[in-house]
Amino acid sequence: MIGLIAVSVGCCSLLLLRLLFRKRISINGKTVLITGASSGLGEALARHLFNKQCQLILLARRIDRLENLRNELTNLHPSYPQPKLVQIDLSNYEQLSSSTLMNILEHEPIDCLINNAGISQRSSVLDTSMDIVNDIFRLNYMSLVTLTKLVLTKMIEKKQKNSSIVNISSMQGLVAVPDRSSYSASKHAVQAFSDSLRMELGEQYPKQNINVCVISPSYIRTELGQQALNRMHNKDEKLTDDKKSSAYEPDYVAERIVNAIEYREHDVIIAPFQQYLAIWLRRFLPSVFFTIMIARNKRLKAKK
Ligand SMILES: NC(=O)c1ccc[n+]([C@@H]2O[C@H](COP(=O)([O-])OP(=O)(O)OC[C@H]3O[C@@H](n4cnc5c(N)ncnc54)[C@H](OP(=O)(O)O)[C@@H]3O)[C@@H](O)[C@H]2O)c1
Fold it and tell me: What are its GO cellular component terms (predicted)?
């Protein structure tokens, strides 16, 4: 018991010292690549980082959306670096190394990669086809790993210092919920991949100081839920998360992420208090957690 208290006090002191002496490395004017910048969180991140005069490289499939965003931003600040756009389907991750993106990576050292593109699901394990499981993993995990490897190789070759890899996970990457099995699993995989990578970089390239940051937000008001429903041909809007009154605005989450990049954070959870409690319960009192979650899901389904 005394040992446990000593360890807890030690950890709290270390955390406090880290908070007090954390160093800020400004992102102003840096080159930032954002995947999934055509809507939601990616779009909000693009706005924030453009205002910091970053050279943006924006990726998505809907090029018209990216063009509208670029026009809006450049009209606002004509003298700031014009964002570069790449229309790409990232789920074809096998073709990434032969895409036009490679040409940009060859000439443009990326200071910060934000792996943000993602898709979700709204169905039980039994109702989810293997095609959907595959699609979720191809985009949320395989493309993230492929792009990270491509960008990281260049960062290391060019001996860049203080760069960042930011992986947008989710609260569901820490605690799974019903009807999101593959989405939650893909985000758990992102967390594990990022943890391994952070340790490897710390061990092998300490002088380059490449930070790996995982962002785990709770619900955000974006198109994620609607896109999931469309893909499953299920138009039951009541199932969308973004209608939840507690959902965060993308702008707020983007601001927190930019802050996390500048302060070189490792793991950032953006969630209300009860969701921190859920993480704790899942770990230390799993049977209580599962009982609560089953009852909660029944109640939610009965309301619909
Ligand atoms: N919304 C939430 O409640 C929430 C909570 C926690 C974490 N997150 C995470 O936040 C990230 C951003 O999602 P969001 O909420 O902003 O949703 P969103 O508005 O639906 O944005 C998703 C983005 O991903 C892009 N994308 C989807 N499929 C793609 C593909 N095959 N190739 C390239 N780009 C693709 C979309 O662009 P195109 O369709 O134009 O390709 C879009 O720009 C995701 O990783 C998500 O898991 C969201």
Answer: membrane
User: What are the tens digits of pLDDT across the range 3-39?
Assistant: 767 777 776 777 777 777 788 999 999 999 999 999 9
- Ligand 1 site residues (CB inside 6 A) read 36-42, 60-62, 65, 88-91, 116-119, 139, 168, 170, 217, 219-220, 222-224, 227, 241
H helix runs in the chain, sequence order: 2-20, 40-51, 63-76, 100-107, 130-137, 144-157, 181-204, 224-231, 250-262, 273-284, 286-303
Q: Would you give the DSSP letter of residue 1?
A: -
**pLDDT grade, residue 97 (50/70/90)?**
confident
Give the residue extent of every domain in the chain: 22-271, 274-304
Distance of CA 139 from the midpoint of ligand 1 (Å): 10
Pick the CATH number of 22-271 from 3.40.50.1820, 1.10.10.10, 3.40.50.720, 3.40.50.10210: 3.40.50.720
How far apart CA 244 and CA 252 sit, in angstroms, is: 16
Q: How far apart, in whole angstroms, are the C-alpha atoms of residue 43 and residue 7?
A: 42
Average pLDDT (253-279) is 97
Average pLDDT over residues 54-81: 98
Ligand 1 atom closest to the CA of 44, numbered from 1: 16
Phi, psi of 168 (to 5 degrees): -85, 105
What pLDDT does 232 receive? Answer: 66
For the beta carbon of residue 52, count every other beta carbon within 10 angstroms: 15
Collapsed DSSP state (helix, strand, coil) of residue 255: helix
Pocket test residue of 33, 34, 35, 41 for ligand 1, highest count of atoms within 8 A of CB: 41
pLDDT per position as a tens digit, 137-194: 999 999 999 999 999 999 999 999 999 999 999 999 999 999 999 999 999 999 999 9
